Every structure is written in structure tokens, then in C-alpha cells.
DNA sequence: CTGAAAGCGCTAACAA
DNA sequence: TTGTTAGCGCTTTCAG
């Protein structure tokens, strides 16, 4: 079972009555080399007849290219974000005959990082970081090694690196504006405790509130952690306050969106009649609950596609591609 | 930027004052070759000093191995199932220095399939099909080519191929038994229209019902399609029938579980007081709704891990590994 | 326009 | 115990 027939370009050459070089020229469409039509046809026929597939390893050996890029992500990444982005990445790379090698972002020192080792040993030609936390030191290290890479993030890192992200935070203004147009009086915020300096969700909320003349009340701001139960209790705390109950809530992530809805269900509060809810982010579960959850949807697939394009350019040309911002979209469903 | 320092084993050999072969022997721990400790140390030092990483492409060229396996899935696969399985696959492969190359299952003729081309061109050494629909002809083709592969599926395909799946359907008995112990009178079934002959969910339900002395009523069986709205209407049809309303529902997939809960919410039916719900399958969203949804959880990570192990064995030894069935688990949450 | 030949970095006989 | 050497299959000067 372990043997391969292994038709090589030499076989094709012999079959077509030409030299190996000619086969290579034809198959790679090398420009600057003119091939007589009948020769080309003969070679193409031989290829088909022998079912020849160029050995990519041998090819890579010669070209110093593995024709694959590493996609690295944190282990605990939100599945949906990553998968959707990965689809885009995959399609973008596949169009250029590049493949995706999946790596996780876990290491002690950067030198020991899997993606570095993969790069050093020529298993990948470049790297796409998809929602992975990478330190400044790591970036410096990669820059010093001349490793082509691109980052995909929701929030711009603010660093001078090739990066694709989205403008979802700017849509918070539209959400607040929409709330206003619906006659909403008090708007609450529920989201995770900021863990990175560049997480500007709460600030964006505050700015949008100010813009539309709303007052941001401390007691209407929930910052929750990893425990779902705790988050629900905190949100229910908001809602049970008979006097100051908000009539709209901005949930800063899909998980917080779901938990906000859940909290309402637990208290028998009607959505959107009693309280309107909008979540920041995408999920395929927003349509599977009652009521369906309005949200700011991220262009995840396109972000992946763009990242693929950028990393290929970085690999080919060696130049860092400037940061790209792709547009998100405020999708109004039943909950708002 | 495009240049590499490219320390080769030759450099290491020179630095250590030995031959290339010796370096190779030491780094690959070739057995049957004894190396003097001081020589080994000298080489190891040189490796560290020069920061040498063996070129995996050159290595692959020699060994006829790419050290990576293709993971192929249908495009529209459930994200959660796939991602969780992929994690297991990745960890299993990574432990043997194999990497994951992500491929999609889309093609006209099998000869044109991406995974076949990848295999033929030596980009992957084997294939794991994760929840991908593969026809019998495709299997035959792969067998005839001697391609090492393994399939990961929820349902056993019943074909004589290396396969890892789970016994989740057998837990339906436990679910029905649990319903019975809670004094449930009428149990309904809600699930997708069977699209494959080997989808035995409904049969398993019927058998479990019979086993516990329940009658399977035609009017308490909902088979729905792709449209969420339609599915909800069908389920609500069940629930609105005042006389024959079921007091428990088995939802045959995560999506149907969510939609069943949603339907109850839309009608103001209490869970689990009025109707108990259990879903077949895993999802990280079951904890994010009210009430949390009971389910039969699949060992997705372990399935991936096992598949990795099996495909590596198939690659190494060339023999097909027998089908493995991993245990699922009935997890009782608030909805039942 | 096409062919001969060198060589990418590695492994594995075979020699020493 | 270690070194010499011959390729793996491909691309690519350089000749013809």
C-alpha cells in the first residue's frame, strides 16, 4: 500500500519526446519562453495520459516555497468568528494554489512558537494571525526575521503592521441613533471587562451616547467576566430595578447578547416591548432564538479573504501591506 | 526581505567538525547508529548556536512525505462540530510532528477533487474526512489509489472503512427513560428530514420509545427542513394542540433543539414545567439560553484525536484501522 | 525554441 | 563510530 506510482516530469518528457525542461516551461507557463504549439500539445497530452501531478515538495525545494501559509489562532477563540474567517482565508489562498496550515498560538518563548518553527523549517511561507493575541515583542521578532505576516482582528491593534479589521464600533452610533428613533429613554451597556488596551467598545458606546444626547449612567453599565451565571445575575440586577430599568441594552459581544436575552427570559421581561437589545458581533445563533437578535455583523469571510490576499502580497513582494478596514453592518432583527 | 539565512545541515556539520550524515543521524535519532556522546554534544551545540532548523521540504523530498494530512469537510458543516473535532485532530497530529492542511469537499469528478490532487502532488500524506459526504465511488477510487484516509462521522456509514463515530443514538434510550422517570406522558420528536440512508435518528427514537412502552404518534413527529421559520411553525403546531400537546420533545439536532426552545418561548410555554426538551448533539450555546438545554453531548475532541491517531497508523503501516466508536454522554441541564 | 546539466537540503546505503 | 556519496523531482541558467 505504501508505494507510489510516482510519475515524474521525466516520464512525461520521455512520453512526449521532449526534455524535462520543456515540460517545466510549459506547465509553469514560463514567460519569455516560446513553445511550438505542437510541442505544447504533445506534452499536455502526455500529462493527461500519464496522470502526472508535479511533486509540490520537489518544486518547493527548488523554489524555497512550501506554498502554504500558517493560520494561527488562540485556542479559546470564538468558534464562529474563526471558522468564518478561515473560510475566507482558505478561498483566498486556494485561488493562488496556496494551502492552509492550521496552527495554535501557544508557546513559552517566541523562539519556541510553533509558527516560528514552521516558518524556520520552511513548512509555511507566511502567517495569518486570526484573532490571536500577539505581543509587541513577538512582532518585533518576526519583523527582524523578515517573516511575512498579517493579522486579522476585530479591533485595530494600533500597531504598524499589516492588519485587517472592521469598523463595527462605528456602527454603535447607528444603534444608539436607532434606539433614539424608537423613543428609547435609558440605554444600558453589558459587555466583558476590557482585557486589552485597544478594546474600545465601552468608549465607543460612551461617545455614541454623548453624540445622541444620552447620559451614560454608571449603574446601567455591566462589566462581566467568564462566568455565565454571574453575568446573568448582573444583568438581572439592572432589569429588576423598577425605577431605573433601562429600555434598551447594548450587548458588546455575541455571548453577552445571548446572556442579555436569557436574563430577560428569566425575569419574564418582554423583548423588544419592555427592553430592546442589540449585540455587537456575529453568530449563526441569533436567528435561532426568540426573538431573533439584532446585531452589528462583522464581514468575517471578507476579512479572511483580504488577509489571504495581503499575506500573499507580503510573501511575493516582501512589502507590508497597509491596514485594511472592512465595513460591518447593523442588522435589525426582532429584538430591537 | 525575501532572502533567508538558511543554515543548512552542512553548516552545522562544519561548525561541529563532523559530516552531514552524522548530523542527520543525531537529529533523527536513527537507531542502529551509535554516536559518541561528545560528538552528539558538539552537534547539538552547533545546532543551538546556529539556530538550525532542518528544512522540512528537503526532508520530505527525500522521505516522500509531506508530514501533513488533509482535513476535508463539507462547506456547510456545523461549525461547532467541526471546530471541536479539528482541535482534537490538530493535537493528535501535532504530537507526531504532522500538520493539518485544511481542504473543502467540493468537486465535480473525484479525479478533480482537491484532496486527490493534494495527495497526488505529495502535499498531504493522508486524509481525514470530518463530517464530509463521500460517495461509495469516491471511496473505491481512494482505495484503488491506496490513499490512507479516515472518516469522522456522527453516524456509522456502515461501510468497511476506517472510521470514528459515536454511540450518541444509543443514549436516546436513556433520554426516554429519563422522561419516563419524570412522569412524562407524551413524547414528540422534532428533527431534520433524513437525507442519508444511514441517518438512524428517527429509528433510534422509535426503538427507544417502544422499549419504554411509549407509543409513537404520527402527529407528534415533526420533520423539518432548512427554513427556521417553517420548523418553528411546525413545532408550534404540535404545541398548540390543546388536547394532544406533548409534555416532552426530543430534538434530533442542536439546531432543532434551539428552535424547539424558541417555539416554546413564542407560545409562552414553560420549560420544563409544561414541556421537557432534550437535544441530540453538542453546542456551546446550550448554556447561553434560558433554560439551559439538556443534550446528548458528542465526544468531538476525542473523535478528532482518535482520527488523527488512526490516519497516522494508516500512513505508517498502510493498514486500515477498524472503526472506533467513542462514547457520548447524556447531560441533564435545566430544560428537562 | 529546446536540451543538458547543475543543484536545492536532506537521508541512507556503503565505505572506511 | 563516522564520512563519502548518490540521488529524491524539480527549476533554471547556459548552450545549442
From TrEMBL, chains A, B:
Protein name as annotated: LacI family transcriptional regulator/LacI family transcriptional regulator, repressor for deo operon, udp, cdd, tsx, nupC, and nupG
An example molecular function term from Gene Ontology annotations: transcription cis-regulatory region binding
Domain HTH lacI-type, first and last residues per copy: 7-63
PROSITE patterns the UniProt entry points to: HTH_LACI_2
Top-level division of the source organism's lineage: Bacteria
Classification lineage: Bacteria, Bacillati, Bacillota, Clostridia, Caldicoprobacterales
InterPro entries linked to this entry: HTH_LacI, LacI/GalR-like_sensor, Lambda_DNA-bd_dom_sf, Peripla_BP_I
Keywords: DNA-binding, Transcription, Transcription regulation
Annotated SMART domains: HTH_LACI
Amino acid at each position: 500500500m505504501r508505494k507510489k506510482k510516482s510519475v515524474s516530469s521525466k516520464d512525461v518528457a520521455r512520453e512526449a519526446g521532449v526534455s524535462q525542461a520543456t515540460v517545466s516551461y510549459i506547465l509553469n507557463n514560463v514567460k519569455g519562453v516560446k513553445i511550438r504549439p505542437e510541442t505544447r500539445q504533445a506534452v499536455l497530452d502526455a500529462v493527461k495520459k500519464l496522470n502526472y501531478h508535479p511533486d509540490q515538495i520537489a518544486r518547493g525545494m527548488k523554489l524555497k516555497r512550501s506554498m502554504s501559509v500558517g493560520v494561527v489562532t488562540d485556542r479559546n477563540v470564538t468558534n464562529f468568528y474563526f471558522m468564518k474567517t478561515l473560510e475566507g482565508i482558505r478561498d483566498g489562498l486556494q485561488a493562488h494554489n496556496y494551502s492552509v496550515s492550521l496552527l495554535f498560538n501557544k508557546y513559552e518563548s517566541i523562539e519556541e512558537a510553533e509558527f516560528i518553527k514552521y516558518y524556520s523549517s520552511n513548512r509555511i511561507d507566511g502567517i495569518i494571525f486570526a484573532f490571536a493575541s500577539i505581543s509587541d515583542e513577538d512582532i518585533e521578532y518576526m519583523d527582524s526575521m523578515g517573516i511575512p505576516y498579517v493579522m486579522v482582528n476585530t479591533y485595530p491593534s494600533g500597531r504598524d503592521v499589516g492588519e485587517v479589521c472592521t469598523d463595527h464600533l462605528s456602527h454603535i452610533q447607528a444603534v444608539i441613533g436607532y434606539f433614539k428613533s424608537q423613543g428609547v429613554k435609558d440605554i444600558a451597556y453589558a459587555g466583558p471587562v476590557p482585557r486589552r488596551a485597544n478594546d474600545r467598545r465601552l468608549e465607543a458606546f460612551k461617545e455614541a451616547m454623548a453624540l445622541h444626547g444620552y447620559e451614560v449612567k454608571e449603574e446601567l453599565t455591566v462589566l462581566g467576566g467568564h462566568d455565565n451565571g454571574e453575568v446573568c445575575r448582573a444583568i438581572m440586577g439592572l432589569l429588576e430595578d423598577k425605577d431605573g430599568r433601562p429600555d434598551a441594552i447594548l450587548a458588546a459581544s455575541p455571548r453577552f447578547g445571548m446572556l442579555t436575552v436569557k436574563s430577560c427570559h428569566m425575569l419574564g421581561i418582554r423583548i423588544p416591548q419592555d427592553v430592546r437589545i442589540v449585540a455587537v458581533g456575529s453568530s449563526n445563533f441569533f436567528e435561532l432564538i426568540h426573538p431573533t437578535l439584532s446585531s452589528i455583523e462583522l464581514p468575517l469571510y471578507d476579512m479572511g479573504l483580504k488577509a489571504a490576499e495581503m499575506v500573499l502580497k507580503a510573501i511575493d513582494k516582501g512589502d507590508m501591506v497597509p491596514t485594511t478596514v472592512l465595513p460591518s453592518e447593523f442588522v435589525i432583527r426582532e429584538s430591537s
